[in-house]
Amino acid sequence: MIRKRYFCLLLLPLITLFRVSYTKPLTEAQFKATKLPYSVMAYSNKYAHEYGLDASKAIKLPKGLEAIKLTLSKSFSKGYGPYASKWDYNCRAELYVDKSLKILWPNNNRSKMTLPILDDRGTMKVFLATTQMHNYHGRIGPESFTSLFFVGFDKTISSGTNQIKLNAGSCSKFPSQASFPVEIWLEKSSGPHYNKLTTNAIPTPNDFYRFPLPVKYTQKYFDYTIAANKYGIQ
């Protein structure tokens, strides 16, 4: 029963699972007139002072998260065999987290590295999830969630923060507007190492740092990810 529900969740894009209500959607003309890459960023007062940014634009972020940047870009995929060449939309996230967090870093003693998007074995598991919990026959986890790829990090970027780079793999993983918070979950070093478990392991809150995304900023970004999935690139 647990496996059946879990795989149903993964097979449905979160753009559907999170759908509750909308602001006025972007038209195709508005969206395609936007210069890419398009990004939104939210940062704390600590981050503003460390990087010399406008402190009046700083906001209160969850403990341990000093900044988040979400980017929508496009890339060209050259076709081969029966597959035609095409343009794809790419959705990425950068997190800047406090150095005190006990995150499950790759066990290679490196201070920074970039990982292949399809080879993040042995690294932390990252989820995009709702705050609403569900009881999976005795195991508590988020009602709706999907994996994000952990594709890089830099522990040397500043004295107070570490940078974490994430890739959604598909913009359809990002939600539409929701009346409840959406969170990014980063695996703690004390966790069971989810990437070494079976694919149907339900994430539980105590194994992760949970960062609710600031809706005021992220909704601007989600408006574009919704349009990216609706209109595509011809």
List its traits.
alpha+beta, single chain, 5 helices, 11 strands, two-stranded antiparallel sheet, 18% helix, 32% strand, globular, 9-stranded antiparallel β-sheet, 234 residues
Written overview of the protein:
The chain is an alpha+beta fold and 234 residues long. The protein has one domain. It has five helices and eleven strands, in the order H-H-H-E-H-E-E-E-E-E-E-E-E-E-E-H. The chain has helices at 2-11, 14-17, 28-32, 45-51, 215-231, and strands spanning 38-43, 65-77, 86-98, 112-114, 126-130, 133-136, 139-142, 145-154, 161-167, 182-187, 208-212. The strands form two sheets. Strands 1, 2, 3, 4, 5, 8, 9, 10 and 11 form a nine-stranded antiparallel beta sheet that branches. Residues 1-22 have low confidence and may be disordered.
Uncertain segments of ≥5 residues (pLDDT<50)? 1-22
Count of distinct structural domains: 1
Please outline the major beta sheet.
9 strands, antiparallel
Question: What is the mean pLDDT?
Answer: 82
By helix and strand content, what is the structural category?
Answer: alpha+beta
Strand percentage = 25-35%
Strand tally is: 11
Report, as a whole number of angstroms, the end-to-end distance. 40 Å
Shape: globular
Structure annotation, total helices: 5
Rg (CA only): 18 Å
List the secondary-structure elements in sequence, H or E. Answer: HHHEHEEEEEEEEEEH
Provide the helix percentage: 10-25%
